């Protein structure tokens, strides 16, 4: 794995030489070579914001990739594919795009990262709705954070969950907030508490609950 902090330099031309030396070494051994955060060294050369040194680095990188041997596997990873220089894509035989996890995948991630917390099962559906559209990394970070806070601050996990839901509920659509409010009722919260957690009015929650959740919500 190429650690960019180990090869980046403030001296003119040094970064390109470092990258060339690392890749030349990797070419000489049978290996899987991972260029993580690839956009940091393979940005578009037509970007007027970038300095000439970084543009020269991209040219060096492309030349080195062209000479990659069949004895090794070169893998590059990025979360910002739109920043990559167009010439980069032609250097790779296969491009694999990982989409955001579907609802079932989110639920599984919540089950894993919530760990052995007490009353874990009652919160899974609620947290699944909160995290729809999030990456696995976001789910892991947020759930581990609230578990740590619960332990360090000696507070019930439910207190931290409330803050988590409150932080993320603003990004949900109206229909999603209403669905979340009903899920909170299912785990034993009162209509007032569901309102406090989601911002959905108590009248709206009550009407939706009385119709069995069949009311059609406008997005």
How far apart are the termini?
A: 44 Å
Return the average pLDDT rounded to an integer: 82
Low-confidence regions: 214-219
What fraction strand? under 5%
Order of helices and strands: HHEHEHHHHHHHH
Estimated structural class:
mainly alpha
> Which of globular, elongated, flat, extended, rod-shaped describes the shape?
elongated
With helices defined by DSSP (H or I, 4 residues minimum), what is the helix count?
Answer: 11
Could you estimate the helical fraction of the residues in percent?
A: 40-55%
Report on the biggest sheet: 2 strands, parallel
Rg on CA atoms, Å: 24 Å
Number of strands: 2
Q: Kindly report the spatial arrangement of strands forming the biggest sheet.
A: 1-2
What does the model show?
This protein is mainly alpha-helical. The protein is 55% helix and 4% strand. It has eleven helices and two strands, in the order ααβαβαααααααα. It has helices at residues 4-7, 14-27, 52-66, 86-89, 103-113, 120-131, 136-152, 157-169, 174-186, 191-198, 202-210, and strands at residues 32-35, 73-76. It has a two-stranded parallel sheet with strand order 1-2. Mean pLDDT is 82; it is low at 214-219.
In short:
The protein has 219 residues and is mainly α. The protein has helices spanning 4-7, 14-27, 52-66, 86-89, 103-113, 120-131, 136-152, 157-169, 174-186, 191-198, 202-210; strands at 32-35, 73-76.
């Amino acid at each position: 794995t190429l650690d960019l902090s180990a090869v980046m330099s403030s001296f003119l031309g040094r970064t390109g030489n470092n990258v060339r030396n690392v890749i030349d070494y990797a070419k000489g051994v049978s290996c899987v070579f991972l260029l993580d955060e690839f956009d940091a060294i393979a940005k578009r050369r037509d970007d007027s914001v970038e300095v000439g040194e970084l543009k020269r680095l991209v040219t060096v990188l492309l030349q080195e990739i062209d000479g990659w041997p069949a004895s090794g596997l070169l893998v590059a990873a990025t979360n910002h594919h739109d920043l990559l220089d167009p010439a980069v894509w032609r250097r790779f035989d296969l491009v694999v795009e990982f989409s955001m996890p579907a609802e079932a995948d989110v639920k599984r991630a919540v089950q894993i990262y919530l760990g052995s917390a007490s009353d874990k099962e009652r919160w899974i559906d609620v947290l699944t709705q909160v995290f729809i559209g999030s990456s696995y990394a976001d789910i892991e970070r947020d759930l581990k954070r609230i578990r740590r806070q619960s332990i360090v601050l000696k507070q019930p996990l439910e207190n931290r969950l409330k803050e988590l839901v409150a932080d993320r509920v603003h990004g949900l659509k109206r229909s999603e907030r209403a669905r979340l409010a009903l899920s909170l009722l299912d785990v034993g919260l009162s209509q007032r508490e569901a309102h406090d957690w989601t911002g959905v009015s108590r009248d709206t929650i009550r009407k939706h609950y009385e119709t069995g959740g069949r009311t059609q919500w406008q997005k």
